[in-house]
Amino acid sequence: MQASIKWLKEYVEFKETPEVLAEMLTMAGIPVEGITHLGKDIENIVTGKIIEIEKHPNANKLSICKLDVEKEILIIVTGATNVSVGNVVPVALVGAKLPTGLEIKASELRGVMSYGMLCSTTELNIDSKLLSPKEKEGIYILPDDTLIGIDIREALGMDDVVLEFELTANRADCFSMIGLAREIAVLTGGTLKKPMIHLHEKAGEKAVNLVKVAIDEPSLCSRFAVRVLQDVKVGASPKWLKQRLQAVGMRSINNVVDVTNYVMLEMGQPMHAYDYNLLSKHSLTVRKAQTGEKITTLDGVKRELTSDMLVIADQVQAVGVAGVMGGLATEVTDNTQNVVLEAASFNGVSIRRTSRALGLRSEASGRFERGVDTVNSIRALDRAAKLLEDMGACKVCPGIVDSYPNMLLPRQVSFIPQKVNAYLGTDIDKAVMLDILRRLEFAIDTNSEGENIIVNVPTWRGDVQYQPDICEEIARIYGYNKIPTTTPGGNILRGGQEYAQSIVDSIKTTLTGAGLDEVISLSFTHPQVLHKLNIVENDSLHQAIKVLNPITDDFPILRTTLLGGVLETIARNLARKNDDIRIYELGAVYLPEKLPLDSLPKEPLMLCGALVGKRNELSWNQGKDSVDFYDAKGTVEVLLSSLGIQDYDVAAGEHMSLHPGKTAIFRKNGNVLATVGELHPKVMDSFGIQRKVYVFEVSVESVVNCVNLLTKYQSLPKFPAINRDLAVVLPLEISADQVKQAIVASSGPLLNDVRLFDVYVGEQVANGFKSLAFSLTYRDKTRTLTDEEIEVCYKKTVVYLEETLAAKIRS
Question: What is the mean pLDDT of residues 776-803?
Answer without folding.
Answer: 92
